[in-house]
Amino acid sequence: MPNSEARVPDPAVVDQAIHWLVRLRFNPADEQTQRTFEHWLQRCPEHLLAWQRVQVLGDDFAGIPSDLARHTLKGSRSGMHRRKALKLLGTLATVGGAAWLGRDYTPLPAILAQQHSKTGERKRFQLDDGSLVQLNSDSAVDSYFNPQRRLLVLRRGEIIVNTGADSGADSPRPFWVQTRDGMIRTLNARFLTYERDDGTLIAVQSGTVTVFPGASQPVAVNDTVQAGSQRLFTSDGVREFKDDGLDLWSWSDGVISARNMRLGDFIGALSRYRPGLLRCAEEVSGLRVSGTFQLADTDQVLALVAQSLHLQIEYRTQYWVTLSAAS
Questions:
Q1: Rg (CA), the chain
Q2: In the predicted model, is pLDDT for residue 56 greater than 50?
Q3: Are 120 and 128 in contact (CB under 8 A)?
Q4: What are the domain boundaries of the chain?
Q5: Which fold has domain 250-325?
Q6: How far is CA 224 from CA 94, 168, 213, 237, 264, in A?
Q7: Range list of H helices, 141-274
Q8: How do residues 164-211 score in pLDDT, each as one tens digit?
Q9: Which CATH number describes the domain made up of 110-240?
Q10: Which residues contact 210 (CB under 8 A, 6 or more apart)?
Q11: Does the pTM exceed 0.85?
Q12: How far apart are CA 109 and CA 127, in angstroms?
């Protein structure tokens, strides 16, 4: 039986999806616009397929100014740009649901999530069960509670969760987090999870957390993450996470804290908190950074790092910045 999710959507439908992406991401959406979009999305399965595929275009432009992103996305609606986009979209797998647990879960876009943060923004909020959730820069989550379980769906980015006592329930319900790479379960813990390029990071500060890689693999001994430990998991399994010198928890206090961290890795971490392209030249990427810096002003962080390592900062624009060796 052919997999309908692997097919390439009709170009006309992709055009419509790109139109909605531009309209929703870069323009304020009132209730009428939201209802019209949801009606379009539910009208036929191909609309949902095109929307899921075309979101990757929006993610590529999430960090640049809205006027430039709007222009670039609109440009992808014509000629060779669109044909290249369709070729790319045709190779992408759609996001899978948690069929074994979250049967009531529908993969809605991150931009429509119940809670989300912009690039450089951090937010915190409380769930109905008393759990406290913090969103890092450019992150999004949805929550789905029922009498049997508490479910938080990580749409994008990074969160810290401090699970509540769930005093309103007859007995504490298991607390689940669904990620791109699998599921996380706990009853009472403070933990962090972050969807990285190479997998999903889970770090536990207190309590214990159990990781279920993929859809429904059985629990193994090393799938339980204890307080003070951290793991990286993909749909294929769980492995140790190598500490690169970044304090994983520091962003919750509004700072980025590094200990003997490679400059290349530090710049990669800092780039999450500012729009545009931030990089360092290859010849200086191995230099080491230590210190604690305020995330409220990333330009000041760059200036301090450049001063301590005797580097120069090249601003081609505010959105294209490079650190290199001083001449």
A1: 21
A2: yes
A3: no
A4: 4-91, 110-240, 250-325
A5: Phage tail protein beta-alpha-beta fold (3.55.50)
A6: 28, 27, 11, 12, 31
A7: 263-270
A8: 989 888 888 999 999 989 999 999 999 999 999 899 999 999 999 999
A9: 2.60.120.1440
A10: 184, 185, 186, 219, 223, 224, 225
A11: no
A12: 20
